[in-house]
Design brief:
This protein is mainly beta. It contains five helices and 48 strands.
């Protein structure tokens, strides 16, 4: 039915002209409303004139073939003129950045070809930047735009907490609006900017829409059913699965006001999925599918008011509920070890933007939030872990995390002559956090192999006792200043300095200088050389400080017994209370890790709307986080601990290091007049000696064998997002990802060092010496627009039908290769990324 419906376009008449759309932004790249946008054909012929809405958007419908110019006027800004050539297909959405009236700016334009590369510091063409119009044409699984763009991130640029997420210039943990309310997604835009903490290649920036002065809406319904999907290769049978998503947004004026607007967005996701167990028990293989349902509801309400053209504010309320059942099952984990969860988040946000004069712009944002995350096991039975074979019993998970937090962002911009100076304050986290940890109160037994499990010979037993309750404050702050200096039209410089602070690390020297330049030796600006360098500090996040306070040997006692009796570790005498307790401590020399990153590249404009960028990026990670048990048994027998009064002493240190080198080629724009999008190839190599703040080496006293390929190291990566327009109403979206394999470690599966960790390696074997297979994925999206009033060529109301195929060639991308020599699965994969899945989308938009 979908193919027949899409094929009917050939029999229908084609509308005259194409739409021309775009966004107007101020120098800080914030949406500019109420700008007068004029479409001209020749100096004296005005074709049409519109006003940009509250999200900076403008649109001209049914523009015939021809040569035009777009003029944008707004109080306090210089007149902007952009040449435009319209052909048979709609041009890519325009992004027009205004300059303040007192800021001198010179742009060279060759004929009717608008410049795609420039010497502006923030206009680097190696960035991955897509707006919603493009994302709607791409095959995006479940409309998760952040996940789709994450393929362009660089794992070596991420910190302890993973990729940094920025929403409207403020650091966030989640995207607070539904997919339809997202205006643009960027990665690596202005990578050496001082107002962000982490490198640009490890940062996702989300720009959301604002309320509009005319009514606009988008409503999406997404449907998937396993009857149309390929079978999981590790499942005995195809299990019934279904997912339904209802998502949308509505914006417009409040009443008849032209100064007050609203934006309402939300989604409801219902997942009836199955988890696949693929394990080995004493009686043979275990294969079964377990229902793992999840529900996800999100609502966001924004009300904005413009007091005058230079002063606008908005208030926003967000809420998110996402309960789930039977999570954690799959692979080696059997159904009885599942967990359930009840989780919700609430936020209230206020944003103020005011131009004090033609030179001064102040942007303020403050957010108040609350979160509650309650996770508990479906069974309270003791947990049994047979290394790389199966996990049974209860999950031994019972934990409640609560949080009340404030986030603050204050940015001041000053433009004078050739300088644009920004300075301000970031408070990404100022929170009161509570933990109630009742995990592992019944204990967990660890066995190195099925043979040892049959013989009832565990290598370790862990159990906790105590209240497990702690309340603490997590405080993080950043100060920054930056000067973007246009030396001359062919040369721009940016110099910045950032200072980071957090309350649990008492080192006050986290000054991070940043520098960037862009230079064009070509008067036509067809070539730009671009580079920079900077220091980027990491943070512990909230987890390690919570562990520091919780595991003090009193509040929550965590007990480790090696080579215990089974099924009663105290059958030979003694009690749990008499055992020495583990503790967590920060090393006295602990400091914030930092990365020195530097890059140099060249950008070339190949065609009117096509650019290519080739960039070398180097990075050195210094003082990276890792953990060691400094009370581990001493060699050569590894039987006697230095301090018998203590158990495991987890010492959190900053002694790790990392070296990363990569070469990246990015092709953006129109490859042909019908093919538009983004292609990026990366050749990289990263080595380090740590897996992160929660990682322990095999030998706690010897790190020499830990220097190796990073866990995430992939030599080759190719990512492609392209939209092909074979006709005015058809779009074919293509997503392609190719990557070489990641490493994994060969282990004996034995607790050779008696630390309760079965991560020992054979003698002389370093970490990450084995490699898994590469990754291949091709996704397709075929969509068709139906204009609901074709007689009057009204394209304001559109119904879109889209059909997506993910992993269309059903390539088996195996994961979780087992390097444990004691496992029955040694050298084999025990899971795979999803096989081919089909998805149907219906969208109504006006």
């Amino acid at each position: 039915m979908v193919v027949i419906g899409l094929g009917s376009a050939a029999a229908q008449s084609k509308p005259q002209g194409v739409p021309v759309t775009g966004t107007v932004l101020d120098p800080s790249r914030t949406a500019t409303s109420d700008a007068t946008v004029t479409l001209r054909q020749g100096p004296d012929s005005v074709v049409s004139s519109v006003t940009s809405d509250a999200s900076g958007k403008f649109r001209f419908d049914a523009v015939p073939d021809g040569t035009y110019s777009i003029e944008v006027q707004h109080d306090g800004f210089r007149l902007s003129v952009t040449p435009l050539r319209v052909r048979a297909n709609p041009p890519a959405p325009l992004t027009i950045v205004l300059t303040l009236a007192q800021l001198v700016s010179e742009v060279s334009v060759n004929g009717d070809e608008p410049a795609q590369i420039s010497t502006e510091i923030a206009e680097n063409r190696d960035a991955a930047s897509v707006d919603q119009d493009m994302l709607e044409r791409m095959p995006v699984f479940d409309q998760d735009y952040v996940a789709a763009m994450s393929a362009f991130l660089d794992a070596a640029s991420m910190g302890t907490g993973g990729p940094q997420l920025m929403v409207n210039g403020v650091e966030a943990t989640t995207v607070p609006v539904s997919a339809s309310a997202i205006q643009e997604v960027r990665i690596n835009q202005n990578p050496y900017s001082a107002d962000i903490a982490r490198p640009g290649r490890g940062t996702i920036e989300i720009i959301t829409k604002e309320g509009t002065t005319a009514y606009h809406a988008t409503l999406n319904f997404i449907f998937r059913d396993s009857a149309l999907n390929a079978q999981n290769p590790f499942a005995a049978t195809k299990a019934p699965e279904q997912r339904r998503i209802l998502e949308g947004m509505l914006s417009g004026p409040v009443g008849h006001s032209q100064n007050t607007s609203f934006l309402l967005s939300g989604h409801r996701q219902e997942e009836d999925l199955q988890s696949t167990v693929f394990a080995q028990g004493l009686s043979g293989p275990i294969q079964e599918s377990v229902p793992s349902p999840r529900r996800d509801s999100q609502l966001s309400v924004r009300v904005g008011h413009q007091f005058r053209p230079e002063h606008a504010v908005y208030w926003q309320y967000n809420e998110w509920d996402y309960p789930s059942s039977n999570q954690g099952v799959g692979g080696f984990v059997l159904p009885e070890a599942a967990t359930n969860s009840k989780q919700w988040e609430r936020e209230l946000l206020f944003n103020d933007r005011m131009a004090l004069s033609l030179k001064w712009l102040i942007q303020s944002q403050i957010l108040f939030g609350m979160e509650r995350h309650d996770t508990f096991g479906v069974s309270s039975a003791p947990k049994i872990v047979v290394q790389d074979a199966f996990t049974s019993g209860g999950a031994q998970t019972d934990r409640l995390d609560t949080e009340k937090h404030v986030q603050l962002n204050e940015i001041v911009s000053y433009a004078s002559g050739k300088h644009v100076v920004k300075f301000g304050l970031n408070v990404p986290d100022w929170s009161r956090r509570g933990i109630v940890n009742h995990n592992n109160l019944a204990g967990t037994y660890f066995f190195s192999s099925l043979q040892n499990f049959s013989a009832q010979l565990p290598y370790a037993f862990r159990q906790q006792q105590g209240s497990g309750e702690v309340v603490y404050w997590q405080k993080e702050m950043g100060l920054f200043v930056q000067d973007d200096f246009r030396v001359r039209p062919s040369l721009s410089l940016s110099v910045g300095l950032r200072y980071n602070w957090q309350n649990y690390l008492h080192e006050n020297t986290q000054f991070a200088p940043r520098f960037a330049f862009a230079y064009s030796p070509d008067q036509k600006r067809k070539i730009v050389f671009r580079g920079g360098a900077g220091i980027f500090y990491d943070r512990t996040g909230a987890g390690p400080p919570g562990d520091l306070l919780l595991y003090d040997g009193q509040r929550l006692r965590n007990i480790l017994i090696t080579d215990p009796l089974y099924p009663n570790p105290f059958a030979g005498g003694g009690t749990l209370g008499a055992q020495p307790s583990d503790i967590v401590q920060f090393n006295p020399a602990l400091r914030e890790p930092y990365t020195i990153q530097y890059s140099f590249g060249v950008e070339r404009q190949l065609a009117r709307r096509t650019t290519i960028a080739a960039t070398y990026i180097g990075a050195r990670g210094i003082g990276l986080f890792l953990s060691r048990n400094i009370n581990a048994p001493l060699g050569p027998d590894y039987l006697v601990v230095p301090n018998p009064a203590l158990g495991v002493v987890r010492d959190i240190e900053s002694t790790g290091r990392q070296v990363s080198n990569s070469f990246e080629v990015t092709l953006r724009g129109e490859l042909t007049h019908r093919l538009t999008g983004l292609v990026q190839y990366t050749l990289s190599h990263t080595e380090n000696n740590t897996g992160g703040v929660n990682w322990f080496p095999a030998n706690q006293y010897d790190l020499t064998g830990e220097w190796a390929r990073a866990d995430f190291d992939q030599r080759h990566r190719l990512n492609l997002l392209e939209g092909f327009n074979p006709g005015k109403s058809f779009t074919l979206g293509i997503g392609l990802t190719l990557a070489s394999g990641k490493p994994y470690t060969l282990t004996t599966g034995q607790d050779t060092f008696h630390t309760g960790l079965a991560n020992a390696r054979p003698a002389g074997v370093p970490r990450n010496t084995l490699e898994g297979p590469g990754y291949k994925d091709v996704d397709l999206r075929l969509s068709r627009d139906f204009y609901l009033n074709r007689e009057t060529k009204d394209k304001g109301k559109v119904f879109t039908v889209a059909f997506d195929a993910f992993n269309v060639f059903n390539h088996l991308n195996y994961t979780a290769y087992v390097g444990d020599l004691s496992s029955p699965f040694f050298g084999r994969a025990v899971s795979a990324l999803p096989s081919r899945r089909l998805q149907l989308t219906g969208r109504f938009k006006f």
